[in-house]
Specification:
The protein has 19 helices and 15 strands. Strands 3-2-1-4-5-6-7 form a seven-stranded parallel beta sheet. A six-stranded parallel beta sheet has the order 10-9-8-11-12-15, sandwiched between helices. With 444 residues, it is an alpha/beta fold.
């Protein structure tokens, strides 16, 4: 049994592993928000909807479940953790982006008898389906409770950096200095009401799983003390009909431009970035395929050398692409890395608005959550560059794109990054390891 937070960016990374398990003769299902049932079925997997749309909250769209009191507590914890500047981004990513998506479905501070029907449905599904192994999304922490209730082995399946494991380690280190004055890790409070309902202690295994399956390139991982099973990232981002123009090799270098589904969903105004990028590529001797929707392109002139499509999976576009311009998300980064494609990451910040539990709006400027680690690793390997329309003029941005396309050192860096990806075992290669770990850890 797999569990996911409701979003295709959480579904696609698990799909190749789920296929490998099915191909090895195992029964596989995916328990998720009912809005994901059609998408799960479309990739050839069996969905188990957790209730119906009338019972469950909708997936997060910027409505932030943090109250003013919680924001104040998170500010206090930030100071108490005493993080070095270079170590702040994992914690800030967790508190800004990941806690809200967890708390929409696992409200913090809830009483044990509060009714969260989807949690009870997940436990019931696990007890009925009786999985030997639950591979769970860290943004859906009730999965560990369901696995333990069903006597199943369980492990986290990451889709990005392990902000959760890193944070558990930082809290443990800091607690040795401050003791009880530090206070509880909010991750513990995220699952406490659910664990209490089923008579379980909130321990590290409930927070982090019995082990962790990690598809992040080894050089980009956060340092953690968790037991980790590496997994090769397979660049699957969905299926779609192949358009006629994609059959023939491009006559000029093809550059794919994609700002990701998260930019459409959460960042209010990415149009200045889009306009800047289109002006940059105009009149260059390249063919650009830009996966941008009508809203992102509203009132923006599209150059003659740019083909716009609302959506095409990167796994269709990248094999014929000489470079990828993208927003820095780990899914896009790893897709290009797995195919040895040089990258240009848009590192500029955008406005991001949240609404707290009292209905108060808060707008702040921030980068995409994954930009710090992806740009840092890209620079270390030499596989591409950053683009920031607020810091770079058009000539500078064009020069970086030209280097990504033609500089042998950048091409070599992209090949080196690909070697980091393929050094990890494939989904089919880790199936026997998962079988051994499952036999070791399951309770029945």
């Amino acid at each position: 049994m797999f569990t996911i937070w409701p979003g295709t960016a959480h579904l696609y990374p698990l799909t190749p592993l789920a296929w490998a398990l099915q191909s090895a003769g195992h029964e596989v299902c995916v328990a998720a928000h009912p809005s994901m049932a059609e998408g799960i079925a479309s990739v050839g997997l069996t969905p188990i909807p957790l209730g119906d749309m009338g019972l469950m909250p909708k997936p997060w769209d910027g409505e932030n479940s943090k109250s003013r009191d919680m924001e104040a507590e998170l500010d206090r914890l930030t100071a108490a953790l005493d993080l070095a500047p270079e170590d702040r981004y994992p914690w800030e990513s967790l508190r800004t982006f990941l806690f809200p998506v967890m708390w929409d479905f696992h409200p913090i501070g809830g009483a044990p008898d509060e009714s969260f029907p989807w949690v009870g449905r997940l436990v019931e599904a696990a007890r009925d389906w009786r999985p030997d192994l639950v591979l769970w999304d860290p943004c859906w922490p009730s999965s560990a409770v369901a696995a333990r209730a069903a006597g199943a082995a369980h492990a986290r399946l990451l889709w990005g950096l392990d902000y959760w494991g890193w944070t558990v380690d930082r809290f443990a280190d800091r607690r040795r200095v401050l003791g009880s004055r530090l206070g509880p890790n909010p991750m513990e409070e995220s699952v406490r009401a659910i664990a209490d309902r089923y008579g379980m202690e909130v321990d590290e295994e409930l927070l982090l799983g019995q082990w962790t399956v990690d598809p992040t390139p080894s050089g980009m991982r956060l340092p953690t003390r968790t037991r980790t099973l590496p997994l090769q990232w397979i660049p699957y981002t969905g299926a779609a009909p192949v358009p006629d123009w994609l059959h023939a090799p491009p006559e000029r270098p093809r550059v794919t431009m994609s700002l990701g589904m998260s930019m459409r969903a959460f960042f209010e105004e990415s149009r200045p970035r889009v306009e800047s990028l289109l002006e940059t590529v105009a009149d260059m001797d390249i063919e650009v395929v830009a996966t941008l929707d009508k809203e992102q392109l509203r009132d923006i002139p599209v150059p003659d050398n740019v083909r716009t499509v609302d959506y095409l999976p990167l796994n269709l576009l990248l094999p014929s692409s000489a470079a990828l311009i993208h927003h820095g998300g780990t899914g896009s980064f790893n897709a290009a890395a797995a195919l040895g494609v040089p990258q240009l990451i848009t590192s500029d910040a955008n406005d991001f608005t949240t609404v707290d539990a009292e209905g108060n709006k808060k707008t702040f400027t921030t980068q995409h959550m994954d930009v710090p680690p992806t740009t840092k690793y890209l620079a270390e390997i030499g596989a591409g560059f950053t683009l920031d329309h607020r810091e770079h003029d058009r000539a500078q941005m064009r020069e970086r794109l030209e280097r990504a396309l033609h500089d042998p050192a950048v091409r070599a860096g992209a090949r080196s990054l690909r070697k980091d990806i393929v050094a990890a075992p494939t989904p089919s290669e880790i199936v026997p390891v998962l079988e051994r770990l499952t036999a070791l850890h399951r309770a029945r």
